[in-house]
Write a structure and sequence with these properties.
This protein is of the alpha+beta class. Helix content is about 35%, strand content about 20%. It has helices at about 1-10, 15-25, 40-50, 115-130, 155-160, 210-225, 275-290, 310-315, 335-345, 365-370, 395-410; strands spanning about 55-60, 65-70, 80-85, 100-105, 105-110, 140-145, 165-170, 180, 185-195, 195-200, 240-250, 255, 260-270, 295-300, 330, 355, 375, 390-395. The model has no long low-confidence stretch (mean pLDDT about 95).
C-alpha cells in the first residue's frame, strides 16, 4: 500500500491541478447567474467521465444538480465521502473576479478560497487514484453540491437520497488545519411594539424605535460581554457571539412608529440549544419591561438563509426545506481525523493541527442529520473568503490534494481502524 500511495502522489501534477482550479474559478456559479451551478456541474461531469470515473447528476432543486463521482471498492472496506460546494457568493467590488490569474504563487478570483480550490483538490485526488489503478476496498465518493451559500439544498438532497458513507470530509478552507468543530447559526427576530400617533403629539403614542434603541443598547452593553466570558467558551471554537444585523421600523417622519423589528445573528457553541438562546434574550426583554412600563417586545427564531419573505415563499414553492444550522463537533479520535493526520507524513514541512472554526459548513448536516463523522479540511485562508481579494496559495492547493488522496487511500483501504 505504501508503494501505491507513492505512485498516487506522483500523479498529482501541479500544472494540471492549477489549470483545473482556474477552470472552476472561470465559471461564474453564484445565485444571480442565469444557470446557477449548471455550467460548472457539467464541466465536472465531463471531466470525470473522460478520466473513467463513474459519475451521475443528482437533481437537488429545479434545474440544479449535484455531481456525484464514485470510485467503487470491493465492498470490503469503509466508504468515504468528499463533499464540496460548487456555488460562490457574488463578485461585488472585485476586479476581474473570473480571470483566475496566477500571480505571486497564488490563484486569484471569486471562489479561489471558498471553495473551488478545495473542490479542485478533491476532484484531482479521485483522478490521481483512478490513474494509479489502486484497488480500494471501500467506495470513494465525491459530491459536488449546489446551494451551500444559500439554504444548503445540495447536501440536504444528498442526505435525503440515503447516505451509505462511513465517514466524510468537507473541503472548505481551513488553512490546512483539521477542523473537528464549528459554531452553529441562529437567526432571531425581535418585534418591538409601540402605539402610533401624530408626530405633533408624540406623548399620545409609544415610540417603538426608541424602545428598540433601548433594547439594542442593553444587548450590546450587557448580553454581548456576558457571551464573551471564558466560562462560556469551547476549547476549539471560542465563545458564542451575537451580532445585531438589521433594524427597521416606522412609516413616515410625521408618525410615531408603532412597530420596529430587529434581527440578530447568534453563533452557538456545541451543546447550546435554541431554547436557551431565546430564553437569554427574553430575560433581557423582561428587564426592560420592568424598567419601562410601555416597553413590549416578542422574540422568535427565523430561518437562516433567506433575506426576504419573497425568497422564503419561493423556497417553499420548490418543496425545499430550511434545516437548522446546528453547531458540530466530532472526536479527535475519529477515523477521518486520524487518517488526515497520518496523511501529513507525505507533505514535508507541515504538521497536522487540530482546530475549530467560527463559520458554519455542510459538515453540520452530515454530522447532526446523517450521523456521519465529518471533518473539515481545505486550502486557503478563510479570512479571504467572500472578500474582494480572494486567493489561494498554489503550494497549499497542491498539499491539500496530496492529503485528500492519501486520506482516501488510507480510509478506503481499511487501514484506519475504528478507535
Amino acid at each position: 500500500m505504501e508503494d501505491d500511495i507513492i505512485k498516487c502522489l506522483g500523479q498529482i501534477k501541479e500544472k494540471e491541478l492549477v489549470e483545473l482550479c482556474q477552470n472552476l474559478i472561470k465559471i461564474p456559479s453564484h445565485k444571480d447567474t442565469f444557470s446557477r451551478e449548471k455550467e460548472i456541474a457539467l464541466f465536472l461531469k465531463d471531466l470525470m467521465e473522460r478520466e473513467g470515473i463513474e459519475v451521475v447528476l443528482q437533481e437537488a432543486a429545479e434545474g440544479r444538480s449535484n455531481v456525484i463521482g464514485r470510485l467503487r471498492g470491493t465492498g470490503k472496506g469503509p466508504n468515504l465521502l468528499f463533499n464540496g460546494h460548487m456555488d460562490t457568493v457574488r463578485s461585488l467590488g472585485m476586479k476581474d473576479p473570473y480571470g483566475a490569474k496566477v500571480k505571486d504563487g497564488k490563484i486569484w478570483g471569486r471562489g479561489a478560497v471558498d471553495m473551488k480550490s478545495g473542490l479542485a483538490g478533491m476532484t484531482y485526488a479521485l483522478i490521481a487514484i483512478k490513474r494509479t489503478g489502486i484497488k480500494l476496498k471501500g467506495n470513494l465518493i465525491l459530491a459536488a453540491v449546489v446551494g451551500e451559500e444559500n439554504i444548503n439544498e445540495g447536501t440536504q438532497r444528498l442526505i435525503e437520497g440515503g447516505c451509505q458513507y462511513d465517514t466524510a470530509l468537507v473541503g472548505e478552507p481551513t488553512d490546512l488545519q483539521i477542523v473537528i468543530a464549528h459554531k452553529g447559526i441562529e437567526w432571531i427576530e425581535i418585534t418591538v411594539k409601540g402605539k402610533a400617533s401624530h408626530a405633533s403629539i408624540p406623548k399620545e403614542g409609544i415610540n417603538a424605535i426608541v424602545n428598540a434603541a433601548r433594547l439594542v443598547c442593553v444587548l450590546e452593553e450587557k448580553l454581548v460581554p456576558k457571551l464573551s466570558q471564558t466560562l462560556r467558551s469551547n476549547r476549539l471554537v471560542g465563545c458564542p457571539t451575537l451580532n445585531i444585523g438589521k433594524i427597521w421600523g416606522g412609516v413616515r417622519n410625521s408618525v410615531v412608529p408603532d412597530l420596529c423589528k430587529i434581527q440578530l445573528d447568534r453563533r452557538t457553541l456545541p451543546g447550546e440549544k435554541i431554547e436557551d438562546v431565546l430564553s437569554e434574550i427574553r430575560s433581557v426583554i423582561r428587564q426592560l419591561e420592568n424598567t419601562y412600563a410601555e416597553f413590549k417586545a416578542e422574540v422568535n427564531p427565523i430561518p437562516v438563509g433567506p433575506d426576504t419573505r419573497k425568497q422564503l415563499e419561493e423556497i417553499g414553492k420548490q418543496g425545499l426545506k430550511i434545516l437548522p444550522h446546528e453547531p458540530m463537533e466530532i472526536s479527535r479520535d475519529s477515523k477521518i481525523v486520524r487518517a488526515l493526520s497520518k496523511a501529513f507524513k507525505y507533505v514535508p514541512g507541515r504538521n497536522p493541527e487540530i482546530a475549530g472554526m467560527s463559520g458554519w459548513t455542510d459538515a453540520s448536516l452530515l454530522v447532526n442529520r446523517a450521523k456521519i463523522p465529518t471533518a473539515v479540511f481545505g486550502p486557503g485562508p478563510v479570512i479571504k473568503a467572500h472578500t474582494t481579494e480572494e486567493y489561494v496559495n498554489i503550494a497549499d492547493l497542491v498539499d491539500a490534494a496530496k492529503v485528500y488522496a492519501v486520506t482516501a487511500v488510507e480510509v478506503c483501504s481499511g487501514r484506519i481502524k475504528d478507535s
